[in-house]
Structures are given as structure tokens and as C-alpha cells.
Design brief:
mainly alpha; hpI Integrase, Chain A; three-stranded antiparallel sheet
């Protein structure tokens, strides 16, 4: 085993420009145990416990996160031998070290999401060892909620309708039957890449006149069934007839009989995108595209959640942010009102009227008073305490209110609204006073 690196000073000069990290590997727990045996023992005990209830990928991520932090502690403060010895200063030092690291592109720092992920898993570790009553646990959680950078909430990356149409047209012409089947399954069911690789050969079944696909237990520990498009049903039948009996029980396998890995499926999708001229397309974009198309065409959030295998409505609501019909309707209504006023003024200008002189609708005509000239008599009658009106005048009052709204004369519109409301209820017409 190589010698332990020379410890660094714990206090970091935040004004200095940190040098990009050149470290390419993380210490193994054997190396950490040589520096801090109890620290390594507590962390490995924790990992063994979460392995009982967590997926292997989650355990691997926690393992890497804890080893990164333990290595930092060993390098910066060799006197810190136990988890119970970890203090706030160690976390602050680790945060600065994370910020100084470089990402895949050497000129850029690691992603904010990566920093958030590492600090979040570290915070969970401290919370659990305290809750579980470990002897080797700090008195309080040294990682605060404010230490985690705020996560971005970008909209899902999806293909718009014209791009999706080009992609699917290119896919329909794909000469490779297996590749076309794989990409069609992703595009028409919204399944995840990992779920596709685990599809059983008998996953298709028929119920109540509809073909269904049974998607196995996946990322969220739940299996589900989704309706299957006739195009995909025909492709599966053709593929199975040409392939013969499945040697592994899986629907699709590589030439060597092994399940398809993520990289191969990514290459399949990218190959179709190149032929379609759509630019790079990621497999998960096909999932987002299907959900976006469904919600934009009236499919309920509950049905989309069932199709995609979402457990929380929040996971599905993100697609509702892409196309909000209420926002669109109100936006276009407002712009139509603005454009109506502008076009009316343009017509008046062309007819020789005073520029900027909107015509205010009165009960028996219009007021052509220039906008630049104030008027103390506007709605003087309607606002008078002795003014009376009757239901037969409601159409005129409504047109006057609409005229006021189009001219953004909201105070005048309010007077007409109160008059109309008084006439359309059982109570007598209100006595409207100016102001």
C-alpha cells in the first residue's frame, strides 16, 4: 500500500484560488482503516445495514461518498479518528474541497447536483448513525440543510412535435429489426432503459381486447402494465418469430446472450437520431416526449403517472409545467385586447382623427375627447347618487364596460360592473358614488 499523502492544513484560505484536483482515485476502506480504524469500521457497518433495504446502486453511491469524505478527513486532520470526532469545521473544509474540484471538463467545476448529492448522502449518514444509537456518533448532525446547494428545477428535455415526427419516421425505416423494436418500446411506452433490459419474453398479454405489456419491478420498486401500441405488438411478433425461443427468458438480448446494457441502448437511440437529423437524443428524452405529448392532448395526470410508474404526483406534475392552457388562454386574451386598442387607434389616425384619441362609448354615442385632455365629467351621470337605470339598459352598460376595459380605464369599468351587478340581483340598483 502506498504511503498516506501528507496531511493538508485544515483551515483553507477562501480568498486563494484553489488548484484543480488531480486526484483520479478514491481511497479504499483498507487505506482509510490504516489512518482511522474506527472511522472506517463505523462507515462499513453503516453500509452493511443499508444494503439490506437499498438497491445496490444506492449502496455503491453511499460507499463512494463516505470514502471521499473519510479520505478528506484523513488528509486534512489525522487526529480525527472516529465519526464521533467529526465537527462542523471538517464539513466546512470538505465543502470547500468539493467546490475546488474539477468536473469532466477540466476547466469547469463539478456539477452543483454532484455537490448536493455528496453532501446529502453524508448528511443522511450522520442522521442515521445518531438515530440508530451508534456509540461512534457525533452529538449532532454536522451537515446542515443550508449546506446543500439549491437544486435546479429544469423542465424535462423532450422532442417537440415536428422533431418527434422526424425521429419516428426515421425509426420506421430502420433496417435493424431488434434495434427498431428496442427504440419503439422506449418511445411508445415511456419505460426506462433499465426496465427495457429486464423485459421478459412473455411480457405481452391480452386483456379485454387490448394488448398490454408487463414492465418488471424497476427503479421505484413497483411493476406496472401499460397498453401496447399495435406497431410494437407486430414488431414483437416478428422479432420473436425470427429469433426463435429465448435462450435467457428475456425479450431482447445481445448477440452474446447477455442482457442489453445502457450504453448499447444509448447508441441505438443516437443512431436513429443521426439518421433523422434531430441532433443528439437521449433515451430518457423519449420518455419525456411521450409524457409531454399525452398531457398536451388531454390525458389525465393520474393516467400518465400510472403509465410512467410514478409514485408521487409531484413527479408527474413537472410535465404540466410544459404546457399550461390557462396561462396560454389568458395571455392570448390579454394580447388580443391590446392589439384591438392599437388597431382602433391606427384606424382613427388614418381617418384623420387626433392621434391617441380613443373613442369612449357613451349611452347614446361616443366621446372623442383627446386622451391628453383630462375630463372631470367622465361617468358623471352614472356616478351620481340620483342616477337610476333599468334591466333593459344592461346591453348598453355591458358594451360601455367592455369599451372601458379595452381602454384600460378600470375605474370607469368598475362603475359599470357595479351597475350591472345591481340589475342582475334581487336587490335594487346600487347608488354609485364617484371614487
Amino acid at each position: 500500500m502506498s504511503a498516506r499523502p501528507t496531511p493538508l492544513a485544515l483551515v483553507v484560505d477562501v480568498d486563494a484560488h484553489p488548484r484543480p484536483s488531480t486526484r483520479t482515485s478514491v481511497w479504499r476502506f483498507e487505506q482509510i482503516a490504516a489512518c482511522a480504524p474506527q472511522l472506517a469500521a463505523t462507515m462499513t457497518r453503516y453500509l452493511a445495514q443499508i444494503a439490506v433495504s437499498s438497491r445496490p446502486g444506492t449502496v455503491e453511491a453511499a460507499d463512494l461518498c463516505l470514502r471521499c469524505f473519510a479520505q478528506h478527513v484523513c488528509e486534512t486532520d489525522p487526529e480525527c479518528q472516529r465519526v464521533a470526532d467529526v465537527e462542523r469545521r471538517h464539513i466546512e473544509s470538505y465543502k470547500l474541497a468539493l467546490a475546488a474540484r474539477r468536473g469532466k471538463v477540466p476547466t469547469k467545476p463539478i456539477a452543483v447536483a454532484t455537490v448536493r448529492h455528496k453532501l446529502g448522502m453524508l448528511r443522511t449518514f450522520f442522521e442515521r448513525v445518531i438515530d440508530w444509537g451508534y456509540d461512534d456518533a457525533p452529538r449532532r448532525v454536522p451537515v446542515f440543510a443550508g449546506d446543500l446547494p439549491k437544486a435546479d428545477e429544469p423542465l424535462p428535455k423532450f422532442l417537440d412535435d415536428p422533431t418527434a415526427a422526424r425521429f419516428m419516421a426515421a425509426l420506421a425505416r430502420d433496417p435493424n429489426l431488434r434495434r427498431r423494436l428496442i427504440v419503439e418500446l422506449l418511445a411508445r411506452t415511456g419505460m426506462r432503459v433499465g426496465e427495457l433490459g429486464a423485459l421478459r419474453d412473455d411480457a405481452v398479454f391480452r386483456l379485454s381486447g387490448t394488448n398490454w405489456l408487463r414492465i418488471p419491478v424497476g427503479k421505484l420498486h413497483n411493476d406496472r402494465t401499460v397498453p401496447l401500441h399495435p406497431v410494437v405488438v407486430d414488431l414483437i411478433d416478428e422479432y420473436q418469430s425470427k429469433r426463435g425461443p429465448s435462450p435467457t427468458g428475456l425479450l431482447v438480448v445481445r448477440n452474446d446472450g447477455q442482457p442489453f446494457d445502457r450504453r448499447t441502448i444509448h447508441r441505438y437511440v443516437a443512431a436513429v437520431a443521426r439518421r433523422a437529423g434531430t441532433g443528439h437524443v437521449h433515451p430518457h428524452q423519449l420518455r419525456h416526449t411521450l409524457a409531454t405529448q399525452c398531457i398536451n392532448r388531454g390525458m389525465s395526470l393520474e393516467a400518465i403517472a400510472a403509465m410512467l410508474g410514478h409514485r408521487s404526483p409531484r413527479m408527474t406534475l413537472v410535465y404540466a409545467r410544459i404546457s399550461d392552457d390557462t396561462v396560454a388562454e389568458q395571455y392570448f386574451a390579454a394580447t388580443r385586447a391590446v392589439e384591438s386598442v392599437s388597431s382602433r387607434r391606427q384606424r382613427d389616425q388614418e381617418a384623420g382623427a387626433f392621434v391617441g384619441a380613443p373613442r369612449r362609448l357613451l349611452g347614446n354615442g361616443h366621446c372623442a375627447r383627446p386622451a391628453q385632455l383630462d375630463c372631470a365629467h367622465q361617468t358623471i351621470c352614472e356616478g351620481c347618487g340620483f342616477f337610476e337605470t333599468a334591466p333593459q339598459f344592461i346591453p348598453v352598460l355591458r358594451r360601455q364596460r367592455q369599451s372601458a376595459e379595452e381602454l384600460a380605464d378600470f375605474e370607469r369599468a368598475r362603475i359599470f360592473t357595479e351597475l350591472i351587478d345591481g340589475l342582475t340581483t334581487d336587490s335594487p340598483a346600487p347608488q354609485v358614488h364617484p371614487g
